[in-house]
Specification:
binds zinc ion, Urease, subunit C, domain 1, 9-stranded mixed sheet, about 400 residues, 7-stranded parallel sheet, Amidohydro-rel, TIM Barrel, alpha/beta, carbohydrate metabolism, N-acetylglucosamine-6-phosphate deacetylase, 2 domains
């Protein structure tokens, strides 16, 4: 018996553009090039069919923290984001003690080996006390290459990204070390000048951690990191499109200047994503979530988001008015490329994992498929099984 399914009738977003009334064929866990005649057909007329979302910066969800939760908690957080269309997620850690972070890296590297998460991101501790955001200042340290190496070694090949303030002592050497090890050096939580940022990019940094947030603003005499990061072709800028972290004009400026091929939409989500208002812990710091905005109890800094990527998508396509192809690039293809997994995910092409999201005309999630299995099965969508099946 064949294990084919045909998803037909949707507006399908491919790397080459939008196909009206398109067909995507699934064979087991993969996208296939053709199907036997008796394969069941799911009629998705009136819907969009887009690649599963790829979130390269995410601290948790569903009430669970990637930094501190048990393995079960982490899986619960991963599942919460899958329900919102994120079929590939990197687990991000906030600043902690070095011993704590190396132990967490060891534990979660197993989940990465099993394919549940797409690797690990250390957002601290090598960040600037001047731009610490919701990180515990007492645990911050300069990015000594030997310590950076200790963290990535603990992740047993699953470290994907380290965010660092590259202007700190040891910063540029650490960037070089990360680049040599194939780990993304991300500039963020930084107080660097324009010139210092250019140096870090020349040393091998390739990502801007949540551009605009936790870095000096754009000034006309001191353009700071934002100008350097936006103008350089080698940099992809992360954006948190929740309507709180960024003014729509700041998002538009980044998309316009960097172009859709150099933007990655991320959530920077914390435990409350997909869960609700209340009190939470972000690493060792207490956070109050009110009206879906997370702030530190002490000081009131924005503390991650409660965003899920389906909301970021919808906002980008509606409020921000971006072309759907550009949104798909920024939410699936670009992060997949950066993470080195574009051969398996990030676009709807034969041979890749059957990871996709069904959206209605208003860009609300109606279905989520991961590796050929429905995580969210589309309701009220007619299935047609050919007579001779
Ligand atoms: Zn973060």
């Amino acid at each position: 018996m064949s294990d084919h399914k045909v998803l037909a009738g949707a507006r399908v977003v491919l790397p080459t553009g939008i196909i009206e009334n398109g067909r995507v064929i699934v064979d087991g866990a993969r996208i296939a090039g053709s199907a036997p005649e008796d394969a069941p057909v799911l009629d998705l007329t009136g819907h969009w069919l887009v690649p599963g979302f790829v979130d390269m910066h995410n601290h948790g969800g569903g009430g669970a923290s990637f930094t501190s939760g048990t393995v079960e908690d982490v899986l619960k957080g991963v599942h919460t984001h899958r329900l919102h269309g994120t079929t590939t997620v990197v687990a991000s850690f906030v600043t902690g003690e070095m011993d704590f972070l190396t132990a967490r890296a060891g534990l979660l590297s197993e989940l990465a080996e099993q394919g549940e998460i797409a690797g690990l991101h250390f957002e601290g501790p090598f960040i600037s006390p001047c731009r610490k955001g919701a990180h515990d200042e007492t645990l911050l340290r300069d990015p000594h290459p030997a310590e950076v190496l200790k963290l990535i070694d603990a992740a047993r090949g699953q470290a994907k990204m380290v965010t660092l303030a590259t202007e700190l002592p040891g910063g540029l050497d650490s960037v070089r070390l990360l680049a040599e090890h194939g780990v993304i050096a991300a500039i963020g939580h930084t107080d660097a000048s324009y010139e210092q940022t250019v140096e870090a990019i020349d040393a091998g940094a390739t990502v801007a951690t949540h551009l605009y947030n936790a870095m000096p603003g754009l000034g006309h005499r001191a353009p700071g990191p934002i100008a350097a990061l936006l103008e350089d072709e080698r940099i992809t800028v992360e954006l948190i499109n929740d309507g709180t972290h960024l003014h729509p004009a700041a998002l538009e400026l980044a998309f316009h200047h960097a172009g859709p091929e150099r933007v990655a939409l991320i959530t920077d989500a914390m435990d409350a994503a997909g869960f609700g208002d209340g009190r939470y812990m972000l690493g060792p710091l207490e956070v109050e979530v009110k009206d879906s905005v997370a702030r530190l109890v002490e000081g009131g800094s924005i503390a991650g988001s409660t965003l899920t990527l389906d909301r970021a998508f919808k906002r980008a396509a509606t409020v921000d008015g971006l072309p759907v192809e550009s949104v798909v690039q920024a939410i699936s293809a670009n992060p997949a490329r950066l993470l080195g997994v574009y051969d398996r995910v990030g676009s709807l092409e034969p041979g890749k994992d059957a990871d996709m999201v069904v959206l209605d005309a208003a860009f609300d999630v109606k279905g989520v498929m991961r590796k050929g299995e429905w995580i969210v099965a589309p309701q009220g969508v007619p299935t047609r099984v050919p007579q001779n099946a």
